[in-house]
Amino acid sequence: MKLGINHHRDISLILRQFVSVLALFTLTEAIAEPSPYLYVLGVGQDAGFPQAGCFEPRCLPAWKDASLRQKPTSIAVIDRASESSYLFEATPEFRDQLYQLQQEAPLPLSGIFLTHAHIGHYTGLIHLGREAMGTKAMPVYAMPRMLEFLASNGPWSQLVTLGNIDLLRLEHNAPTQFTNFIVTPFLVPHRDEYSETVGYRIEGPNRTALFIPDVNKWEDWNISIVEALEAVDYALIDASFFADGELGNRDMSQIPHPFVLETMALFEQSSEEIRNRIWFIHMNQSNPLLDSDSDATRLVRDKGFNVAREGVRLPL
Question: If residue 215 lies in a helix (H) or strand (E), which one and from where to where?
Fold first, then answer.
């Protein structure tokens, strides 16, 4: 029997769904073991979704239905074997994300890694102060300029003087060893008004991930993102904007993030196995990928890429 083109598409969709279910089963089985794993706590741009003051049609449903809201980008490394968990980014939604992390794994928070000094990436530290948690020497890992920014500017400096946080210096490409995983920061180009900006390589016993939530255009980096993907199993990377023109009349050349369409074009010649390593994250409220049923989301998935969502688990 000769199948029509729609039948071929249906079969292809069924096969993709089967592969997705099988992959999810594999991840769940892996996480049942004591090996560390990544856990996604937020996928939005710094201000989340919807942003303050947005009363446009795309934002109104989320004001009425909290389940449609998206927290700013943050991930965690959960290591049940060593009874510890580590946050990457302290976002404005730190309170809710810490609760979400505790629901996933009721383990002590053992440290926080920061990428840079933009509001969605460090301002949640305020919850560690005496007006809130009043933590004692919470380890905060960051690069030299970031540490200087925190130590020299209130209210963050008060966290240092009161001993709420312990600032731990990182260096470019210098690994930090933990019980069951290694974290290595690396500099990436970005708007560095107050601090440098880094991504992180997170290496577990079995798999390795890149976390690059904020970066300028890929061609501004002295490393090929395509080549970088060949050395890891996952890459959670900047997807602030899907395409040019997304912000109406605003000149998007002044916000030089790589568009999702640009990133996908770089991997056109890559195998599906390589494309499947990419998880788009850090989406602005204008990005249609925030809607899991959008045409943009279907396009990304059809091309073999992934869109990060809260609750995704990736074993290390």
Answer: none
List of E strands, the chain: 37-42, 74-79, 84-88, 109-113, 138-142, 165-169, 176-177, 182-187, 198-203, 208-212, 234-238, 278-281, 306-307, 313-315
Domain boundaries along the sequence of the chain: 33-85+170-315
Distance of alpha carbon 194 from alpha carbon 116, whole angstroms = 8
Distance in angstroms between the alpha carbons of the first and the last residue of the chain: 45
* Residues 200-240: tens digit of each pLDDT: 999 999 999 999 999 999 999 999 999 999 999 999 999 99
Q: Are strands 138-142 and 165-169 parallel, antiparallel or unpaired?
A: parallel
Superfamily of domain 33-85+170-315: Ribonuclease Z/Hydroxyacylglutathione hydrolase-like (3.60.15.10)
